[in-house]
Target: FecR protein domain-containing protein
Amino acid sequence: MTRESGLPRWGTAGWAVLLMVAGCARTAEDAGAAETVSRELSSIVATCAVARGPVDTMRTENAYWEPFEAGATFRSGDWVRTGPKASVRIEFRGGGRIELEERTAVRVERPEPPSGGGSVVALESGTARGLLPEDALPDGPLVLRGDNGRQVALTVEAHAGPTEFRVTRTGRGMHLSVSRGRLLLSEGAHRRTLAAGNWLDVARGLEDAEHDGPPFPTSLSPGVDARIAWSPGLSIPLSWGPLDEARRYQVQVARDLGFTRRIVDTPVEGEGFTFLPPEPGMFVWRVSALDAEGRPGESGFARRIFVDRQPPRGLLVTPRDGYEAPDALAAEDLVFAWQSTGGEPRYRLVVARDRELRHPVFVREGSPQQVVLPGLTPGEYYWGVYVAEEPLVPLFQKARRLVVPGTPTLHSRDPALPMER
Model:
């Protein structure tokens, strides 16, 4: 006697129908899951790219703050804030980004269909720096929302390149300034162009065409990320370029990039100020022009100064030690860069075939902290930088090695260019 299975005797046609029904059910289920995923993705307004220090978010559906890390996503209506000595960079789904400085809070939004449009940012407190690409954002412009409901749309002027801007919460509302490039602003029927160095109060709207602030001065000395040896009574001259429309300037020196721990905040006349660091450490300085009513304009980019207990000897930046140029770039330009020593010294870049730099093939002397050198012939080189005074003061403990790949030809020669003074 045979043993029967518990399966019903439906025949081939019956099983085929059953499999088709099951397949349809699975397809519908998969489609529903895909739709859910698509809806979830479309609800994302922005993503956290970088987070440093204590950072929190308050979700739309929650009434409490919770910490987050890089990779977190934000939906319309979410709040983001930074604590002391913290910062976070937010990348918008439709393009562009903002970086929140310490003690800053913003709300990110996205208009609901059918109105649609790009991301909306409302600054509650602090300062946010932003960057918009030159190409048009696919979802529409980035929009700043003010306290009184004003909404100013930001786009980049054609051929202006990526544009950097800053939004700061002040007692009057939101202060919008441009550090690089040109922004096109729109609010209803009103249009404005805001060039680098200028600013306006968002709360006053675009119909007031006469309230742009003065441009920002160009910082001259010390150079970017200057390193200076500490000594009792040390004084560091700060200098910047003059502005025709400014007679007074506001100088600020702080312990942090957010300028919340200021140790200098004073108006000065002329294009210089002497900073007396109280002790070794990192300091940050910036300068802005004062308008006729004594209001500071855009301060541009802050510069750091590192006051070291020991004399700095490791100020070479690039190329790194042991750098080997890619084959495709062997005959193209090489960029040599180093940090500033403060003041206004002249530097001497030396490229040689020997580690002691006694037989140079290239020497250039000048005040910039960067030299672009036309392609070197294939081979092994060493390089270093000195302060051009007597005796020479090296900015390195050992020369850096550099390799240019390829096979030298019989007629190739070292670029022994004359020293430029």
